[in-house]
Amino acid sequence: MNDFVREEAAGEARAVDAVVIGAGQAGLSAAFHLRRAGLEPDRDFVVLDHAPRPGGAWQFRWPSLTYDKVHGMHALPGMELTGADPARPSSEVIGGYFDAYERTFDLRVHRPVDVTAVREGEGGRLRVETSEGAWATRALINATGTWDRPFWPRLPGQETFRGRQLHTAGYPGPEEFAGRRVLVVGGGASGTQHLMEIAEVAADTFWVTRREPVFREGPFGEAEGRAAVALVEERVRRGLPPQSVVSVTGLPLNDAIRAARARGVLDRLPMFDRITPTGVAWDDGRSVDVDVILWATGFRAAIDHLAPLRLREPGGGIRVEGTRAVRDERVHLVGYGPSASTIGANRAGRAAVSDVRRLLRREEDRERASVPAG
After folding, report:
1. d(CA 338, CA 231)
2. Integer Cα distance of 50 and 132 in angstroms
3. pLDDT per residue as tens digits for the range 254-286
4. What count of other Cβ atoms lies within 10 Å of the Cβ of residue 373?
5. Residues with Cβ within 8 Å of residue 123, at least 6 apart in sequence
C-alpha cells in the first residue's frame, strides 16, 4: 500500500486494510485466513498482541496444568500440533506450537503492544490507538479473549480478611498451599482442578459454588456441543454478556472427579454471605476459618478498548451476528461468546475474514466509482 510508508514516516496513523487485536487461537486463525486471502502482513494487515511472547492466554496457565489435562485443544488451521509430551506444562506445549505457527506462516505479530482505544477515524476508517502508535484500518478483528479480565466477586467484609486471596489468573500450582486451609470458590473446570490438586497437600479444603454443580455423564458429542453453543449464541444475539460454553455443558464425570467425590473433596457448600477476618460466614450461623480464598470465578470479555465505538447494548453485551458487531459492520469479534472454544475460534476467524473481504471489495468498488472518468 503506497501511503503506508508515507504515513508511517510522518508519524501519522499507519493505514492498513485490517487490524487483528490478539494473537491467541482466534487471532492467529484470523491472521492465517487473511494471509491465505492474499493480504500481506505489515502491508495490508497487522496483528497486535500485548503478551510478551507467543501462546495467547495459554502462556499464563499454571505449571501443574499439563497438556494431558487440557480439554479439547483444537489445532490451528493449516498446521497440526503433533508429538506433544502429555506430561509437559500446557503453557510450554501450546506456547511452542503458537510460536512455530507464527513463524511458519510469517504472521509478523507485533508484541508487546497494548491497544488503548479504538475510535472513529477519518475517511470512514477506524483509528486503533496503541503503545506503538496509531493505525487507520478499514476493518477490525478483535480477538482479545478474557484472560486479562478476571472476575472477582465483591462481598461484605472482603477487605477485612487477614489471609491470602487470589484468582485463577494468578494460581501458582498446589505447592504453595501445603498445610493450609483453603477455600475454593467456583464450580467450573478450573475450580474443580484447583481443588483436587490442592486437596493433596492442604491441611483442609472447602468448596463453595453459587449454584449446585452439574456433573455430566456419558459422551459429549457433536449434537450436544451444538446445543451448548446455541445457548451461548442466543445470549450474544440478544446483546447480553456472553457466558462460557462450559457454563452450559456441565462438568465431565471422569475417573478423577469420581475419586474426589468419593473422598469428600467435592462436597459443595452454598455461597457464603460475608467474609470475616479469619474466613467466611453464612447468615444461618455457620462459619469456616481458612488461610486462603481462591476465586475460580471466571473471566469477562476484555473489550474495554472498544468503548469509544459505543457497541454495547442496554443488556451490557455487544450484539453479534456471526462474528460481526451489529452496531458497526467494520468490527468483528472472534473468540467471543459462542466462539470462545478452540474449535469455535478457528471457525470464527475464517468467518470474520470472509466478511472482511466482502467489506473491502465493497469499499474498493465505491472508491473506483468515485474517481472521475478520463
Report:
1. 8
2. 11
3. 888 889 999 999 999 999 999 999 999 999 999
4. 3
5. 136
Nine cell digits for residue 259: 475419586
∠ CA(143), CA(146), CA(150), 5° rounding?
A: 160
Question: For residues 113 and 50, is the Cβ–Cβ distance under 8 A?
Answer: yes
3-state secondary structure the chain: CHHHHHHHHCCCCEEEEEEEECCCHHHHHHHHHHHHCCCCECCCEEEECCCCCCCHHHHHCCCCCEHHHCCCCCCCCCCCCCCCCCCCEHHHHHHHHHHHHHHHCCCCCECCCCEEEEEECCCCCEEEEECCEEEEEEEEEECCCCCCCECCCCCCCHHHCCCEEEEHHHCCCHHHHCCCEEEEECCCHHHHHHHHHHHCCCCEEEEEECCCCCEECCCCCHHHHHHHHHHHHHHHHCCCCCCCCHHHHCEECCHHHHHHHHCCCCCEEECCCEEECCEEECCCCCEEECCEEEECCCECCCCHHHHHHCCECCCCCECEECCEECCEEEEEECCCHHHCCHHHHHHHHHHHHHHHHHHHHHHHHHHHHHCCCC
What pLDDT score does 289 carry? Answer: 98
Q: What amino acid is encoded at 342 in this protein?
A: T
Identify whether the C-beta of residue 207 lies closer than 8 Å to the C-beta of residue 266: yes
What does the pLDDT look like over 193-202, one tens digit per residue? 999 999 999 9
Question: Which residue in this structure is represented by grid cell 467425590?
Answer: 261
Report which residue type is found at 272: F
Bridge partner list, 252: 216
Task: Please state, in angstroms and rounded to a whole number, the distance separating the CA atoms of residues 227 and 103.
Answer: 36
Structure-block grid coordinates of residue 202 = 492442604
Q: Answer yes or no: pTM beyond 0.70.
A: yes
